[in-house]
Structures are given as C-alpha cells and as structure tokens.
Amino acid sequence: MNDANIEFYRRIGASKLQELAALQGLAQTPEIPLLMPIIKDAQLLVEIGAGYGRIVKGLKNNGFQGKVVAQERCPELCQVLRQDCNGDAEIFEADIKRQQYPQKPDVLLWMWSGILEFTPEEQQSVIQSLFGHLQKGGILVIEIPREIRYVGKPIDERKIVVDTEWGRLDAYLPSEGELLTYGAKAGFAHHQTIHYQTDTGLKRSMYVFEKK
Ligand SMILES: C[S@@+](CC[C@H](N)C(=O)[O-])C[C@H]1O[C@@H](n2cnc3c(N)ncnc32)[C@H](O)[C@@H]1O
Fold first, then answer.
1. Domain count, the chain
2. For 81, which of 56, 89, 185, 194 is 20 to 30 Å away at the CA?
3. What pTM, to 2 d.p., does this model score?
4. 10, 88, 117, best to mutate for ligand 1 pocket (most atoms within 8 Å of CB)
5. Given pLDDT bands bounded at 50, 70 and 90, which one contains residue 99?
C-alpha cells in the first residue's frame, strides 16, 4: 500500500498539500507547542515524511534548538524542502522502509497521519525498525486522527480513502489497541498519549513511545 501511495504525493504539489493542512487546522502546527516540553532538549530530531516542511518550520518557530533532519521519499517534495527549509533542516531523501540513519536520533516524529499510509503489517515492521534506529532513552511520536473530516472518506471502521483529481491515497487508521501493541512488540514503553484539537476543531492524538 505504501509503495502505491507515492504517486499521490508526486502529483499533489506543495500548495495543494498546504491547503489540506489548512483544512484540517494543522497549518500553524498546533502540535508543536504541545510537544516542546518533551522534545526541547533533543540533539538530533528526524521527521519521517516531512512533506512541504510544515513541521520543520513549526520547530523553528517554537524555538527548537537541536539538529533537524527532514526525511522524505517523494523527489518533488524533497525539491520543495531544499528550497524552503534550507538552513533549518538537513534534507534526507529516503524511504523509511529501506534506510539507515548515519547517526542515531534521540527524537523521531511521525506526524499528520503518516503511519496511516501503511498496512498494519507495514506499520508494525516500520515501528520495529524505528526502535533499532533510535538512541537509548529516545522517543518516537506517532500522530493520528481520532475522527475523519474534511479530508478522506471512511470505507469501514479502519480503512480510509482520499480520492482526488490528482490521485488516490489508501490509508489504514490503527486503533489505540493496535498502536500500543505495535509499540510494545517493538520494545517501546508507552510514555504518554496527548489528545488535542486542531485549529479547525479536529480531534487528534499523539502517542509518545520511549526506548528505555
Ligand atoms: C500527510 S504527509 C505529512 C507531511 C508532514 N509530516 C507534516 O506533518 O506536515 C505524509 C508524508 O509522508 C511521506 N511518506 C509517505 N511514505 C513515506 C515513506 N515510506 N518514506 C518516507 N516518506 C514517506 C509522503 O511523501 C508525505 O510527504
């Protein structure tokens, strides 16, 4: 599923992606101030699937001081990141399913439903490999929606499709039980869950896992 979803991002373009972020109330990164108490002392933070740089800019605007690596596999979005985030992040063009970090990060952020673009088997397998990549004592943040509104259509309780004129994205929304099981199986301790509402009132959650 994740391999097929790349076409959606190759065609969407940064401005459409920005529009979707705005619709969902995420344009102004309401998540970052909530995360700052947990991530503020990190030396090396990697964002998985950095898109057009929304989180990179949010980190900068909230005074994050550590080094930021923006990982993205879509070549067109990497181009945007190189133009717009030059100086604020190192751009790492790589697929999360097939890469190694040269240096172990102490924070991994997987924001704005990134995990949903993978099947349950892929979700478990990526979380397992992220555990290996992290520093001991490091944290992994996984952000997911608790309701589907504005963007995407539920097909059943867990499957979602985003069907647009530029392409289709298939998604799987893990339940809280599934997410906590992925984390525990990979070896993570569940540190906390942050429930929040976006600027357009969407209910979303961030699961914070720790590699003890
Ligand atoms: C919904 S966007 C989120 C963008 C950004 N994290 C944010 O919060 O604004 C998901 C991003 O993950 C990227 N992505 C999807 N699968 C990926 C993979 N296997 N490896 C790296 N990036 C991936 C997509 O290209 C897209 O830019």
1. 1
2. 194
3. 0.97
4. 117
5. confident
Which residues lie closer than 8 Å to 84 by C-beta, 6 or more apart? 14, 52, 53, 57
How many other C-beta atoms can be found within 10 angstroms of the C-beta atom of residue 95?
14
Angle between helices 2-12 and 14-23 (to 10 degrees): 100
Phi-psi category of 9—alpha, beta or left, where left has phi over 0 and alpha has psi -120 to 50?
Answer: alpha
- Residue 21 sits in a domain whose CATH number is 3.40.50.150
| Dist CA 60 CA 47 (whole Å) | 13
Q: How do residues 121-140 score in pLDDT, each as one tens digit?
A: 999 999 999 999 999 999 99
Nearest CA to ligand 1 atom 4: 51
Boundaries of domain holding 174: 2-210
Axis-axis angle for helices 75-84, 2-12 (nearest 10): 50
* Average pLDDT for 197-210: 97
- CA–CA gap between residue 189 and residue 169 (Å, rounded): 31
Which of 72, 107, 122 best tests ligand 1's pocket when mutated (most atoms within 8 Å of CB)?
Answer: 72
